[in-house]
Sequence to fold (353 residues):
Amino acid sequence: MMEHRQVRWYLGLLAWFLLGLSVNAAATETVDLRILTWPGYADADVVAKFEARYQVKLKVSYITNDDDMWQRMQGNQAADYDVFAVNTAELQRYIDQQLAVPISPENIPNLVKQLPRFKPLSTIPGIVREQKLYAIPYTYSEMGLIYNLNYFVEPPRSWRVLWDRQYQAKILAYDGSAHNFSLAALASGLNNPFQLDPQQFADASQRLVELRRNVLTFYKSPEQAQQLFEQEDIALLFANYGTQQLKMLRDSGAAVGYTIPQEGALAWLDCWAIAKGVKNKSLAEKWINYSLEPWVSQQLTLRQGLANTVVLEPHALAEDKIIWLQQVEDQQQRSQYWQKIISGKQIDKVPPS
Fold:
């Protein structure tokens, strides 16, 4: 009997020992490539095939807006990522602050598969500086206006509809500082919504205060926007994620239309870039090259409704109304004032430039 108890005791001790080894191994598992990106850009099955091909381990982290990404790439956190997805306008401050490192195009052979409009790379504003390549185009979309067919027989013609009081608390807008100031400027008829002088910035700030009072809320992700659309009585949605959100809503059965208003629509071109904290640059470039394989890029269209830079798909991109994002006059000021606006704080007088 005593021997039997000893055996059970030893077996129990062994089990705890093995469990400890397992937990410790999981905690210290080596991650070979760390990716910071948007939802839908690195799906689990796509990642798994890359891991199997190169016998590596990836860690994918997601962001919901440009401000979130900028915060994560600051200070000590900058060493936590190897590859990140960023639009061409936002990319400029990462280059300015040396948070992005040049990419070797010879290590991206799939560049030859990209559509003609993305060749040569030197013609795409913002991705080449001092003859060094800092980003590879991956996907793009205009930021259109989604409208509820139960409210509109004809598509709204102007962005000013977002400020129309008859739709108060029936509007969803996006929680992003740079884009919202540009949107307010666009709705006001400015030719360049990216470079605002002090008076234009003050006017845009006031317009955004009025927008805050008119919207139901500001969403942070397309999933949140879809959930709110299903739960609330929504007439209008500023589609920061463009056709991706249109597809999500239609797939859920929502009766919605999509339009680009007469003032035009902001449009983003998202690219892969390599962070300054990259541990294995060669592997990072392998990931970028892998993402340009047609079957990988096509998932963006099939699953997300987004255009990709490799496979030509039917896409209602109104070239004459597209306003590609550019670097703004002062990103930090836009971010600071946006936080005041959404929190309902008093807006100070805009300091002179």
Remarks:
- The longest strand covers residues 265-275.
